[in-house]
Amino acid sequence: MSLKVWEEVRGEWTVLRVSGEMDLVTSPAVRQRVHDAVAEGRRSLVLDLSEVLFCDSSGVGVLIASRRLMRSCAGQLRLILPARGAEDGSHVNRVLAALGVRRLFDCYPDLPAATGQSATTGPLTA
């Protein structure tokens, strides 16, 4: 399976929607899109990972590097990792939790919550 990344703007937020598999071959595309957004002066970034079906350590490395990059430029990074239940929840959410790095990220269940357009939903707890 391949990886697709497309971009949209929601107010001050740049949203990168990612679908497919984040692995050694495909995850550099996500890293490049994050770097491109920062180079264009965008400092509020949402990575929508709700359609990511697989994520290996290289994908996790890209997420951690993206967090580091956003922090270095006084930006903010939010992840969308929907919780659909223990058995069919977000693969990325399970991987981050298993590696013990889930707590490093501000995670939200959906786009309105991540971009502040939902008054009722805040960030997910680790």
UniProtKB/TrEMBL annotation:
It comes from the Bacteria. InterPro entries: Anti-sigma_ant (IPR003658), STAS_dom (IPR002645), STAS_dom_sf (IPR036513). Transmembrane segments: none annotated. It holds the Pfam family STAS. Residues 15-118 form the STAS domain. CDD domains: STAS_anti-anti-sigma_factors. Belongs to the anti-sigma-factor antagonist family. NCBIfam families: ant_ant_sig (TIGR00377). This is Anti-sigma factor antagonist. It comes from Streptomyces gossypii.
